Fold proline--tRNA ligase.
Amino acid sequence: MILLNQLLFGPTSETVMYPAYANWIRSHRDLPLRLNQWCNVVRWEFKNPQPFLRTREFLWQEGHTAFANKKDADAEVLAILELYRRKKSEKEKFAGGDYTTTCEGFIPAVGRGIQGATSHHLGQNFARMFGIECENENKEKQLVYQNSWVLPPEPLVYGYGT
């Protein structure tokens, strides 16, 4: 495919949002921080888009959180994805995350799986990268623990009316 104009595609919302987190979070009293957004996403990592199932550009909902401790971050990953049945492997997980949980479906007509939703425990990896710290109860600086999750629109399309 030849593009007439050059385009810039960012990898994920984290790289846009998390520098602001570093400015917003100062104390454990600022946590948990929970943000929700709807945004368009463009993906070029697969060869054969499927209309209504997996297109190159689509709207999705994603959540991003920050916690003072791993225990609370872990609890939210499981709460968001209570019905998810498995964790992604090291090769499948979100790059930069500690672990990823997912709910996927198989579409026999096209012989492919499709992502239903994912939830990622990001640990302190992005906090370290973007300097997102809080002052804990002992007035010591510490990195926050973060999560993100997404529900793409495809489950809404193929689940409608069921």
Summary: The domain at 14-41+59-159 is CATH 3.30.930.10 (BirA Bifunctional Protein; domain 2). The beta strands are 33-42, 57-67, 86-87, 99-107, 112-123, 133-135, 141-143, 145-151.
